[in-house]
Amino acid sequence: MRGLFAKMTSYFSPSDPQVNNNVAIYQNCPGLPQVAGHRGSSRNIFVTTDYNTFQEIDPDTLAPLGTVSQSQVLHRDLKGPLSSAHFQRDPETGDMFNYNLAPGRTSTYRIFRVNTSTGTTDILATILEPDPPPPPQCVQDENNKWRCDLCLDYIGFETTDIMTGLYYDVILDRNGAGTKFWRFRMPLDGQAPKAVHGAAAYEVLSILNPHAGELPTINPAYACKPYRYVFGTCNRGLNTVADALVKTDLQTGDALIWCGLHGHSPGEAIFVARPGTVDEDDGIVLSIVLDGSAQKSYLLCLDARSMTESGRAEADFPIGIGFHGFHGGVVE
């Protein structure tokens, strides 16, 4: 157990040098050499968290192979301990974007880009703020070069129940919190660049739980483009964590929901497009589902259009459901 002061000091001087990144996973990251010394290989798979380190894992066994920091391999000025676990990638060039945060009396954000073609890193902007907020997610919008409105889609919670609901005793005794899906639009037309920071956003739509859920994902081909469908986990109140998978139509507000048996908790929904398709929802949805009664998990495969089960692969052991994932090609 740590006291309040010990927790505060450990934020600046961690006593445990071990790294256990467990948030997001990326393949073929530019600028990050393998432990073996190769660059840009298909075996280049790294795991990130809201810290400035990358942890390489073996693509076959998932065993950790080693860690590097942003200042070691990307740019020497990226010295801050904090960053976003969620890099954003340009869908056309493959360049990766993120920020590095150095807290202090005057905190410093450094926005940077890792060039896919050269493997080099450019610091695009340095921002000084007196009081740093908690690390936000890293977002990207390629259309802003035309100065059109910025749309922000996010999952929101009206109370802190999502936090208190994850305490162990609460998980065993009562239901979790509900969610909403919100979309806000910030108009930029006709505004001078210096006035943009004061622009007011207005709500475009709001979709209630369980028609919208947590861990939202989309067809990756629609990144930085208008999209219609969002896949996520939702809670109908039958489990203490997630108890269903939902496909939300942002044009109509309609939803298709896959419901497992009581005690079956799905993880993040990963959309995999059918090869050669042109339709946004033509493909499958993959999710790791925990069977709490049997204490085992299975990989669920759903038809993305109908959200009906196509098949499953069962494991003889439980698998964590709160992690992000990705679907990639065969790693050679």
Automatic annotation (TrEMBL):
A GO term for molecular function: carotenoid dioxygenase activity
Q: Where does Fe cation bind?
A: H324
What is the required cofactor set for this protein? Fe(2+)
Example GO biological process term?
carotene catabolic process
This protein's UniProt keywords: Iron, Metal-binding, Oxidoreductase
Transmembrane portions of the chain: none
**Per the annotation, how and in what number is the cofactor bound?**
Binds 1 Fe(2+) ion per subunit.
4Fe-4S listed as a keyword? no
Q: Which InterPro entries match?
A: Carotenoid_Oase
Q: Name one Pfam family in it.
A: RPE65
As for family, the record states:
Belongs to the carotenoid oxygenase family.
The protein here is known as: Uncharacterized protein
